[in-house]
Amino acid sequence: MDQNTSAFRSKAKALLSLHSWSGIVLGMLLYAVIFTGTVAVVADEIGEWSNSNYPQRLMLTSDVNETVKRLSAQTPKEYLDEISAYENDRQQLVYFFHTHKQNPSGDMDEYGVQYALNSQGEIVTEKTGFGSDIYAQDDTYALSRFLVSIHTELHIPSPWGLILTGILGLAMLIASVSGFMMHRHLFIDMFSIRKQRDGQSLKRDSHTVAGTWSIPFAILLAFTGSFFSFSTAFGIPAMGIVAFGGDQEALMYAMVGEQQNKSEARMASANLNLMLQDAVQRQSAAPTFLSISHIGTESASVLAFFMPNEGKVGYEQLVYDGTNGDFVEYKPIVGSVPSLGSSILSLIYPIHFGTFAGLWSKIIWISLGVAACYVTISGLQLYAHRNQKNESSWQWYSRLCVWGFFGLPLCSLASTVGFFVSGSLGTNQSVWTQLSFVISAALISVLSLSIKNIHLLKKVLLAGNGLFCLILPMLRYTTSGTGWLQALQHNMMAMMFIEMTLLFCSVWCFFALYKSMQFDQQNINQTNTSFSTQETAK
Amino acid sequence: MNHLIMTLPFIMYSLAIVFLLAHTDPRRRQLSNKTDNTTNRKFVLSVAGRKLLAWSLILPFIPLAAMANYAGILMYAGAVTVIGWAVSELPTSVV
């Protein structure tokens, strides 16, 4: 019996060490990935909000067939291999006529001409280059792209950023599983949060309760996140080397499920508008994007991509024969025939980002992200608090926690301010969004080092967050002129959602600030009372 | 949109059940009595009753699966965990 108890204790101790160290070493970076992941859930909405965009469903209202014919006539023939079409966040329909070739980094990429057309069908911009470069310099997505890139790669060059986020996902997985295994009274303590003498919740209990409730999704999100990072950094290149002898083009054709050598014999293509109408009828929704391959040849095909719809979780891809306009198949995400692997793969992205049921699922996924952030913050604070008591040299860790927890949201908000201000000044938004983040990070670091009192530093950063959350809707209105009435008239749900969330966060920040100041005042009063009691006793 | 509306009643149901579980949680009551003697809870559930209530949180998966509302299943599972955490964080004077 004694042996069993001691074995259990040593196992629990080992698990606690594993749990603590996986959290302490990578906790701050993990917080950065989880926080930006929570923001990335609404990346599309942020894109629409930052451009004050209301989707016009241009793919359904404009004559795609006529536009493609017109643009094909003025585009070099080598770029007619494939045409991608989608509506961007500035009420423009984007057509990218491209072929595939290796970019300077050695990766397979799309290369060609990109046209952005307004609702009247006039060309607004025309760019030639690699798809990755054109997307990286597109100011439309400057803000959402920047925030998502922190989540996926921490802005570290490829593949190192992906490897690091993959390791962070594994650390989250280890912390979740070890936390689950070491807690003996998991279900008994599910609703119990003890209070400290000062009336505040005990940090350990808050950490345990939030962790217990969010364990299933923490494991799910950590696994899917790690899968994304490692499959892009290792998995696909490794598969290319092993199965295709390093032939990336052959690998891509096999993954996409296309024949590598297609007939290039000329043949008239069917009307794209009719195929589009049929796809919309089948899915009862507008496609997210279109991919038109080998137009004007015997091998012409059209693929319409749809977000999950009507209770489904995975994406849908409808393929049409481009020569006669007949519906061919619901195409799997990977390969040419339906498989378990393809089905699982089609579920991973929607499950990780919560994009399977519009705003409703995103609200739930944001809440899960907030819970995960809370678990990370409370865990690190718990460690900082314990060591702060024992050793004065650990003060820096508490300072680091305040710097990270309050600083990262503030830097993200500052980058948004940079996006709007640079947009109104007509300068490069992609550059200024990043620069604003870096400048604010430097300022917050200086502030964190110069303000000696950690509580005061926390209050300053909290006030900064609240102020920026309040300013941003006004700044957006000033730069775009689109108000709430107009937004409601045009059913701009994404924009309203982001504005409401910002205002809610602002209220929360100021409320937390007020409570903190009230708490400080109570402490001062208590100290004064006990001091005067001591004086009277003397 | 229909499948989202179909999920909402189940989420409300889970909120009620989790609220009830928290309200009748013996450990939570024990801790609340330690700090606040004025708390008077007359509503008590047996251990078996609480277990039944907890297991009943799984019931909505059956109709959701029958309706092939897989998005609803995921949403419901996510909502239960978020509601559980939020209710636990509420002060004992509320729950």
Automatic annotation (TrEMBL), chain A:
Keywords of this entry: Membrane, Transmembrane, Transmembrane helix
Coiled-coil segments on the chain, per record: none
Record-linked InterPro entries: PepSY-ass_TM
Record-annotated membrane-spanning stretches: 21-43, 162-187, 208-228, 363-384, 396-419, 431-449, 456-475, 495-514
Official protein name in the record: PepSY-associated TM helix
UniProtKB/TrEMBL annotation, chain B:
Membrane spanning residue stretches: 6-22, 43-62, 68-87
Keyword annotations of the record: Membrane, Transmembrane, Transmembrane helix
Protein name, as recorded: Uncharacterized protein
Organism whose genome encodes this protein: Aliiglaciecola lipolytica E3
